[in-house]
Amino acid sequence: MTRIILLLISISILTGNLYAQDIQGPVVRGTIVDGDTIAYLSLPVVRVYAPKIFRNNREERQWNRLVRNVKKAYPYALIAGNKMNEYEAQLIGIASERERKKLMKIAEDDLKAQFEKDIRNLTFSQGKILIKLIDRETGQTSYSIIKDFRGTISALFWQSIARIFTANLKDEYDPIGEDRMIEEIVVMIENGDL
Which of 8, 155, 161, 178 is the most buried (most CB within 10 A)? Predict the structure, then answer.
């Protein structure tokens, strides 16, 4: 009986070893330390946030309002980042200034047709957050994007309109300082926690 069990174990080990040799798995780097091989791999950075503890109801309402506003503005910032990359790729192949302006006018009309109604329905707070998130996604302020694509006069005009409504198109995104809570919310959205 023990011979049969040993035979079955031997067969399973042999077939397991043969089977394991046929499988193509991930290649893992390793190093040898004191005659022992140690595998190592690079893992992505994972941010974990502690559960929010609020001092009072007012603070909790402010947090919930910020979460709602970021959730509303963030998809538009992602679209802006993608569209910006798309338009920059198209502009690289165009040499003449006339063709560049023509392409940018087409792009502007397309964006207006798609998003103007939705963007106009954003609140002032959501608009300010969108300005910050566009900087986060594109690496450029909204002012510099308008200036690059539509010219200095247009950028100055929209900056003055924004200033009337207490916004600033030149605001930069500061994930460590002023915009720390927005960054936390964005990371939670990206991780699927919100």
Answer: 155
